[in-house]
Amino acid sequence: ELSVSLPKLGKDEIGGLGESIRVLASDLDILKNERNEFLASISHELRTPLTYIKGYADIARRQDTSDADKDTYLGIIFEESVKLSKLVKELFNLAKMDENTFSIEKEEVHLQPYFQSIVEKVSPALKEHHLELFLECSAGLYAQIDPIRFEQVILNLLDNARKYSEPFTKISLIVSEESGKTHIKVIDQGRGIPEEDLPRIFERFYRVDKSRARSLGGTGLGLAIVKQLVESHGGTVAVTSSKYAGTTFEIVL
Ligand code: ADP
């Protein structure tokens, strides 16, 4: 009976099968290339802070370096170490997400107090940059989220809004419910993202202005983590932006 149900492959089908295998194999090649590119990016990203640390440590330990210069160099070494540990931590989190060895523990969360407490947490840091954060969230909204992981999503988006905004502009966090779905928007009035970069900003290590993003303390992984976390909540994240007119990230759960 088994032999009856097996498709008889004619010459065309065999050709078709060969074609599918070829397509599959080239997909695998793409995966392999992506992995190689990713590894190359990682080593580059690790090497950059290490180069600073090594270089400045070397000058700082020279006999003829003044104490004042030493202080400056130690400051740089410290900052670069902070960047390095952030990068390692984020890479580790992404690796865990890739392997699915981390779990999302969803619970029913009352959104108004939840977002209010996030706003209270980040507002002082934003104030230091002369940025004001406004929250708009109606009372009585609930959503099934992992409160800790989802906070990471919002913190990453707010941190970007801070990094890419000019002082004395505003940032809004708007939470609403539309046709049974929760919409969360983070809106800034910052420099915006050029249209040609928009499709790529969720990629790991993709940055519009590499050196500038780096000097702002960015790792290039923030949005990749946002996307992974939102998707593991079963949601979507989208971006709209225009140069110099600000950026909106919208999450739908
Ligand atoms: P980074 O650590 O460099 O901020 P992200 O993954 O968080 O990395 O973001 C990727 C890039 O997208 C950033 O380098 C920046 O160019 C751009 N970007 C992200 N958020 C914003 C924003 N709110 N306004 C302008 N550009 C942004």
UniProtKB/TrEMBL annotation:
Keywords for the protein's UniProt record, in alphabetical order: ATP-binding, Cell membrane, Kinase, Membrane, Nucleotide-binding, Phosphoprotein, Transferase, Transmembrane, Transmembrane helix, Two-component regulatory system
Keyword Phosphoprotein: yes
HAMP domain residues: 1-33
Name of the protein in question: histidine kinase
Topology in membrane: Multi-pass membrane protein
Residue range from the parent sequence: 201 to 453 of 453
Catalytic activity: ATP + protein L-histidine = ADP + protein N-phospho-L-histidine
EC assignment: 2.7.13.3
Localization per Swiss-Prot or TrEMBL: Cell membrane
Enzyme class, broadest EC rank: transferase
Species of origin: Neobacillus rhizosphaerae
